[in-house]
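User: Predict the full complex structure for these chains.
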Amino acid sequence: MIKKTPLYNLHIQHGAKMVEFAGYQMPIQYKSGIIQEHKFTRENAGIFDVSHMGQLFITGSDQLTNDLEKIFPVNLKNLKINQSKYSFLMNEQGGIYDDLIITKLKDGYLIILNAACKKQDFEIIKKKLDDKYELNLDESLSLIALQGPKAKDVLGKVVSNITNLKFMNGGEFEYDNSNIYITRSGYTGEDGFEISIENKKAEKFVDQLINYGAKLIGLGARDTLRLEAGLCLYGNDLDEKTSPIEANLKWAIPKSRVDSDYPGSNIIKKQIDDGVKTLRVGIKPETRVIARGNTKIFDKNDKEIGKVTSGTFGPSVECSIAMGYVENNYSPTNTKIFLEVRGKKVPANVCDLPFYKKNYVKGEKNV
Amino acid sequence: MSEVKFSKEHEWITLEGEIATIGITKHATEMLGDIVFAELPEKGKNVEKDGTAGVVESTKAASDVYTPISGEVVDINQSIVDDPAKINEDPEGAAWFFKLKVKDLSELDTLMNKEEYEKFAKETSS
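Assistant: Here is the predicted structure of the two-chain assembly.
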């Protein structure tokens, strides 16, 4: 059966076009359309229902930290309570089962998982932890993202004291006589927050954000926003056959963990030392042609050198943009490549990511 | 100018003498969403009824544009290639796609009138 999030009725009320995504009925867009929703988020504050994503709570103390470091290539011992890191669940070949955000809590960890991967992730993590800890993939909580330059002002009218939160940090806040957990993070390249809230309070909470000027934004604009920001979409840009090094996400694996043990660690160390054969790059076609996922990439001598994994029109940068994997020697910025779209070879250039850059407000910029 | 006719592929067509003007319907643009790319046939090319004669892409997906009748392409609307958003703004007016010198006027008889098309569009989109 296709699931509905607690905000389903609100989406319908606001004229959403619903689609199935990872087993959930989700809004792809509302009446104003993807481009307007995208631009609104860049200029104001956009609300995203991401309740389909997994919120995995694991309870435990120091031993849990040790055990989780055997699963994730991240430095959890140095992580302060309420601090978050981007990381991966990996297989023994160094491929990625999922990309995720892990946050240290007072009594354990919160891991935000992709909707399509969450059940499998849960089973993998549970097995690796030998059933020693309590794991809760909490379905009683909704997850709301509020993104954009006005996100802090809008949220500040509904919840007190949020402006002191630093990027990639979280905390407990009071809302409607109960505690909610808020992190300063997101997936749009804008300042913003992700709010974990009881299902029964989610609709009222979002209604209040709307009353203070924020608007609901669909998955369509979420995709154009994240691609402009150069962020990967699991299933498109990352998969079980691609390592974080190939995905150009080496920054997420701290130097202190390179020599220690986690799934795929031998392969990752070798890739860091010896380099990789293919690398994820940004791609800008020279025309308006859009190169979607699986578009083949060629060099000037018609040799096939890779493929596109995500491509769209960037509403803020106002041009066609894409990401994909190319053979390593074609990865330097400004390398001329060709994209095969409907039988024609379209000239394009390898470019730096992100396509769209805005400074995050305050605090740690992790990337 | 003749009555506007419509195809099942959601193109509209009007006739002035032996020159037909073709575009995509408002209903088509509503289904596609924001259009961000348009590709048109080359001038001088002969196109066949129901054959592909262009491409439009929205932020979500690419769709072929078909020609509802056969003929020679005598003009194209470069302004929608340069600014595809115009197609969403005025699909059945300023944002026409191409003009054909019609090969066989009787092909128009196979197309729907406005009333028939509206009924068709309603039935197929629900």
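The longest strand of chain B covers residues 52-58.
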